[in-house]
Specification:
The protein is an alpha/beta fold. It folds into two domains: 246 residues, 2-enoyl-CoA Hydratase, Chain A, domain 1 (Alpha-Beta Complex), CATH 3.90.226; 179 residues, 2-enoyl-CoA Hydratase, Chain A, domain 1. Helices cover 37% and strands 19% of the residues. The strands form four sheets. It has a seven-stranded mixed β-sheet, sandwiched between helices. Strands 12, 13, 14, 15, 16, 17 and 18 form a seven-stranded mixed β-sheet that branches. The chain has a two-stranded antiparallel sheet with strand order 2-3.
């Protein structure tokens, strides 16, 4: 007597589970340009590392003799695998079974995935393709009652945000709780043409709001490229998986570990001569910040997040001599690089991300201050800006400030904690104050200009007088700036700084004093 019959039945059930929603539904899914959930997991993880849990969970029917006659697998697949050798938890919706909705799921599987990440202290990746919520109203008819909604595992979803890297990919028409699972992450990505994200889909929106929209019009990439609901856009599912792998490479597996340092292939002493002229002499002229960053950080190490949301601020990961860092910078081509409500929110979230996972921050500063005007006032920009500044002040990770050009007003002052060890370097192009001289002269000398017979000549005279006073060397004489450097020395200095920063990080390991929210 052996257990061979039971083992055969186990293999049969696993084989049935791998058929997912059946040949017809799988073919329809693929015809829409989408991979199946099992193909997604295979392409995301290192080859042959996926270990599935709960493979035979599903809905079954038996004959009068107790023999299995029908099996529909749960529409959520979970397990562990490896990405670049590191263990992760991955959970994916199977849209071929009840469209990924809860009435085709075994709720415990989704909860178990979050629990595994939480207790094993490893990253979790959610491959979201469905609503993940209550499912069809027909479900209520079958049950005979409705219910007070509870988001499954949400205590773990929130807790994981402050413990392990959480990544989400929007890979289809994702609504309701599915959309919330995408947003409740440190990094989220959606795919052009095949994914949409919304609180509620077109039929519900048409009934509730009278807006007749297609899925793409309501929640396609053209909506969310700039909405802030997701971080990045991918051209294909394969591109999305590559972005996920890259994002995770900058972070530790949990807040109890240090970020991984990779072997450096770029000379830490590299001095790029282009830096001496990249900031224009004309203070109103912009320059290409992304090109500038490549001159300082390790070659091909920059990974940008949220480029089109709050575009005046750039947030990215990069490496210095192989050490991962977070980078903040202004893009003078968008609102002059000033702080908008959106860019302030972007800074707050990114700084909190770096604080959570103990990444040192390099702040490349050219900050004219908060964007002014009626539209900014209507968005409550001052409150959003103050929240961003508070995030910077609350951060205890090592931070260094490179002042490339402007530091003006409340926004500029908030780019570093000026009350601590204010580790910063300025370039000779530095220009700072409570507000720019050009605008300040009009305010400070308004009466004189109004009373003057030749206000243009007086204004020119005043500006010429102020020009020498605003020199950064005058500030350095008063020790108002600690060090002015040749811009070409920036990389060598930062590569030295980052090693000192990583020596301090072991003292900070563990959960941050303020947990991160989505």
């Amino acid at each position: 007597m052996t257990w061979e019959p039971e083992i055969k039945e186990l293999h049969l059930r696993k084989a049935l589970a791998r058929q997912m929603g059946g040949e017809e539904r799988v073919s329809k899914h693929i015809s829409q340009g989408k991979l199946t959930v099992r193909e997604r997991i295979e392409k995301l993880l290192d080859h042959d590392t996926f270990h599935e849990r709960g493979a035979i969970a599903g809905k079954t029917k038996y004959d009068e003799n107790g023999n299995l006659i029908e099996f529909t697998p749960a529409n959520f697949i979970l397990g562990t695998g490896r990405i670049k050798g590191r263990k992760v938890v991955v959970g994916g919706d199977d849209f071929t079974v009840r469209g990924g909705a809860a009435d085709g799921a075994i709720r415990g599987k989704q909860i178990y995935a979050e629990q595994m990440a939480h207790d094993l202290q490893v990253p979790i990746i959610r491959l979201v393709d469905g609503t993940g919520g209550g499912g069809s109203v027909k479900f209520l008819d079958l049950e005979g009652h409705t219910y007070v909604p509870v988001n499954p595992a949400w205590d773990l979803v929130v807790a994981n945000m402050e413990r392990v890297p959480v990544v989400a990919a929007c890979l289809g028409s994702v609504a309701g709780l599915g959309a919330a699972r995408v947003a409740a992450s440190h990094f989220s990505v959606m795919v052009e043409e095949t994914s949409q994200l919304f609180v509620a889909g077109p039929p519900v929106v048409k009934f509730g709001m009278g807006q007749d929209l297609t899925k793409e019009e309501l929640g396609g990439v053209q909506v969310h490229r700039t909405s802030g609901a997701v971080d990045n856009i991918a051209k294909s599912e394969e591109d999305a998986f590559e972005q996920i792998r890259t994002f995770l490479s900058y972070l530790p597996s949990s807040v109890w570990q240090l970020p991984q340092v990779e072997p450096a292939e770029d000379d830490p002493g590299r001095r790029d001569d282009r830096l001496i002229s990249i900031i224009p002499k004309n203070r109103r002229a912009p320059y290409k910040i992304r090109e500038l960053l490549t001159m300082i950080f390790d070659v091909e190490s920059i990974f940008e997040m949220g480029r089109f949301y709050g575009g005046g601020t750039l947030t990215c990961f990069a490496r210095l001599d192989g050490y991962p860092v977070g980078v903040l910078a202004s893009d003078p081509f968008v609102n002059g690089g000033g702080l908008t409500a959106e860019s302030s929110e972007k800074i707050e979230r990114f700084v909190d991300l770096c604080q959570t996972f103990h990444l040192p921050i390099v702040n490349m500063v050219d900050q004219p201050g908060m964007v002014i005007g009626l539209p900014s006032e209507k968005k409550g920009t001052i409150r959003k800006g103050v929240r961003a500044i508070s995030a910077i002040y609350q951060a205890s990770v090592p931070m260094v400030e490179i002042i490339m050009r402007r530091v003006f007003g409340v926004g500029g002052a908030g780019m570093s904690n000026g009350h601590g060890l204010n580790l910063r370097y300025a370039w000779p192009s530095g220009d700072w104050g409570s507000l720019p001289v050009e605008g300040g002269v009009h305010v400070a000398y308004r009466r004189e200009l109004e009373a003057c017979d030749n206000p243009e000549a007086l204004l020119k005279e005043l500006l010429e007088k102020m020009e020498s006073v605003r020199s950064p060397f005058r500030t350095a004489e008063a020790f108002g700036i600690e060090e002015i450097i040749d811009p070409r020395d920036t990389r060598p200095l930062l590569c030295e700084w980052v090693k000192d920063a990583y020596e301090l990080l072991p003292q900070q390991l563990g959960v941050s004093r303020h947990g991160m929210r989505p």
